[in-house]
Structures are given as C-alpha cells and as structure tokens.
Amino acid sequence: MSVTVDLHTHILPAVDDGAEDVSEAIQMLQIAAANGTTDIVLTPHYLARGMRSTQMSKADLERMFGLFKEVAAQNFPKLNLYMGAEVFGVNNIEEVIADGQLITLNNTEYCLVEFGFRDHLQRALGVLDALARDGYKPIVAHPERYEFIQDQPRDVFRMLDKGALLQVNHTSLEGLSGIEAQDVAMLLIENNLAICISSDAHSTFQRTPDLSEAYEFISSTFSPEYAEDLFFNNPKAILKGKKV
Ligand SMILES: [Fe+2]
User: Fold this and answer.
1) Which residue ranges form the domains of the chain, and what is each CATH number?
2) I need a surface site. Which of 47, 62, 99, 153 has the fewest CB within 10 A?
3) Beta carbons of 211 and 8 less than 8 angstroms apart
4) What beta strand segments (E) does 61-180 contain?
C-alpha cells in the first residue's frame, strides 16, 4: 500500500472553505489514514479574502491547531499532524514577514503560497522574490490551476528561477479541476518539475485527502521510485526543513 505525506489540506475545522466542523475534520483524517497517509500538514487559507480565517492572526490559527491536534490524537494516535498554512501571496508579504505573521510548513523555511486563479505572472513573481529575499523557500500551491500558467505553461520556469518549488494537486491529475489543469499537471510531472503531489483536500467527497489512487497512477505510469519521491520522500524532507 502507498505510504504518503500530505503537505496541503484544509482539514483544520471551521476556519476556511474546508472542513466545516470537527466531525467532518475527523472523517477526513479517517480517509487519509485508511489510505496510507502518515503525516498531514493542516494548511488553512491565510491572508486570503472571504474566509473565516481572513480576520485570524497567526496566533489564532496556532491556538486552533493546538486544540484540534489534541482531539485528533485521541482518535488517531499514530497520525502525525503539523501546523502550516496556504498563504495568499499578498503584495505586502514583506510586512507580514516583518510583523512575524508569516506561517510556514511546520515552522520550516518552506512556505506554501497561493495566487488568484486569474492573477498575473509578474505579481506572483514579485511575491516569490520577496519571500526568497527574506530567506524563505516558497512552494507554489497547484500552479496547474492558474489561468496565467495554463495559458503559458513555460512560465513555471520563471517561478523556478526565483527558487520556488511546485506542488501539484492529485485532483488536477484526475481531471477534477478541468482539462487545462490536468494537462499542465501532467506536463509538470512528465518533466520532473513538481516537488510533490498533495491533496488540497476540502471535504469528505470530491476533494478528499485520499492520495492512494494518484500514487498508484504515478507508480504504474512512471515508476514506483518517482511515486515515492513525489508522495513521501520529498514532502517528508520538506517537513524536516531539509534541502530537496
Ligand atoms: Fe488549498
């Protein structure tokens, strides 16, 4: 069975458009654990507009994480949970950093960052630049879902040139985010440009934390070693703050 580490989930309950309550969050953990996931980072949307977390500080989210981690440990003592966030790439990211408000993956230098689906390449590059200048290692969440990348997939090289890493969603590979996202996701995987595949799970249906099918797909289409790197070795190293 596949053993996986999931760097991108919306399981922390009642903070964004992911798990609505503790019960749904626990069910999501159940799905992940039953399908071989051993380590999960909780990455609520952060600094994004229109979410409950919009008004929350880093300390607020850390407090909620601490509370949920205790509940989760009672149900799944073997499952490792880590604090993180999907940080919206705001223009004033340098101020966020200066204020000590940036949330990274398990307190490492790795920061999962997202952009608007109809954002602009230059703005995204500016944010990646700012993060890199301050010593962070940005991981771009689901580049295959952005229209500006779908229109010009080669622009991922501009992101990579800034020192960014790329995280692909398993649902994109499966076609759940449209044919364009699926095509770009395959292009990234075929060309060894993504560092990991994560779930970006939002619920117990459709966008779930079950990575097992995608793992089998990569393993049989490319190689078992490539699947192990994308779903386990690379995300595990990132969580430990190691170079990947
Ligand atoms: Fe997400």
Assistant:
1) 4-239 (3.20.20.140)
2) 99
3) no
4) 80-83, 86-88, 110-114, 137-141, 165-169
Reply yes or no on whether the pLDDT at 1 is more than 80.
no
Tell me how far the alpha carbon of residue 17 lies from the centroid of ligand 1, in angstroms: 9
Residue 88 CA to ligand 1 centre (angstroms) = 10
User: What's the gap in Å between 145 CA and the centre of ligand 1?
Assistant: 11
Q: What is the mean pLDDT of residues 85-92?
A: 97
* pLDDT band with cut points at 50, 70 and 90 for residue 49: confident
Report CA(160)–ligand 1 centroid distance (Å).
20
> How far, in Å, from the CA of 222 to the mean position of ligand 1?
26
pLDDT in tens, 113-136: 999 999 999 999 999 999 999 999
Q: Which parts of 138-233 fold into alpha helices (H)?
A: 147-151, 156-161, 170-173, 179-190, 212-221, 224-228
